[in-house]
Amino acid sequence: METSANRIRKGVAPLRAGEGYSFLLRRLHSLSGIVPIGAFLVEHFISNAEATKGAAAYNDQVKFLTGLPFVHWLEWIFIFLPLIYHGVYGLYIWYRGDSNVSEYPWSGNWMYTAQRWTGIVAFIYIGYHVYTARFSGVLLMETPAAAFWKMQQAFLNPWVVAAYVIGIIAVCWHFSYGIWLFAAKWGFTVGEEARRKFGWVCFGLAVVLVAIGMVTIRGFLTAPPAPEPSAVESSFNTTLLR
Predict the structure, then answer these.
(1) Nearest residue to 188 via CA among 85, 26, 21, 34
(2) Which residue in 3, 131, 181, 209 is a FRET match for 108, CA 20 to 30 A apart?
(3) In which band, very low, low, confident or very high, does the pLDDT at 100 lie, cut at 50, 70 and 90?
(4) What separation in angstroms does the CA of 87 have from each of 65, 115, 173, 199, 236?
(5) Per-residue confidence band for 109, with pLDDT thresholds at 50, 70 and 90
């Protein structure tokens, strides 16, 4: 008598080709958005909020962070490489996905679509921010005392201010809703009621982060002009000689 096992053709894997790897890569993508990227994001917002205290406080914070042991290894292992993986694989997921909000205009569908598009905006904004703040102009690894001045100079351009406002909102939404998706996918929120309540928590987090970002930008815009790098370097060298 032929059994169900005998009817299965030989050579047919229990999972379709690539499905196992896809599951692992998606889980790593989801996890990387929380740790280390999400953890760094929160720290970055808090550190940048030192700008509300003035140039000296902000520069001291930058000096502390850039002076950490093995700082170059730390930023590549825990910031740049996870960001590259999360962003590039996120673009792949976005490319492979289909938007059907017109056919199925449910709130969850709109939230998922917003998550995809804010991810694109966040990816572009973060790339711009990292390049301009870390790799162009005055190098803050060498001259951290020029950090506040550098941001103030960038914000003299109203288009840069607008880009930061849009980018910060996109990053905060993407991260906060990403936490909600992470909790649902990994089984931390079970049931519709738990997910609904946690959704409000994530929404509150997004509002708080956006508020911190906007207050930080205002700190740069309303503070007295910081000294230029040449003056900062001269003052720094004079202090060392004393």
Answers:
(1) 34
(2) 209
(3) low
(4) 24, 13, 15, 23, 38
(5) confident
Do 174 and 119 form a contact (C-beta atoms < 8 A)? yes
The pLDDT of residue 98 is 56
Q: Tally the residues of the chain.
A: 242
Amino acid at position 33, single letter = G
3-state SS, residue 105: coil
The pLDDT-based confidence of 18 (bands split at 50, 70, 90) is very low
Peptide bond between residue 14 and the one before it cis (omega within 30 degrees of 0) = no
Q: Rounded to the nearest 10 degrees, what angle do helices 107-130 and 81-96 cross at?
A: 140
Fold of 23-97+104-241: 3 helical TM bundles of succinate and fumarate reductases (1.20.1300)
Radius of gyration of the chain, Cα coordinates, nearest whole angstrom: 23
Sketch the domain layout of the chain as residue ranges: 23-97+104-241
Q: Give the count of beta carbons closer than 10 Å to the beta carbon of residue 155.
A: 14
pLDDT mean over 9-24: 56
The answer to pTM > 0.85 is: no
- Mean pLDDT to the nearest integer, 219-225: 93
Residues sharing a CB contact under 8 Å with residue 123, sequence separation 6 or more, in sequence order: 87, 90, 91
Instruction: Please report, in angstroms and rounded to a whole number, the separation of the first and last CA atoms in the chain.
Output: 96
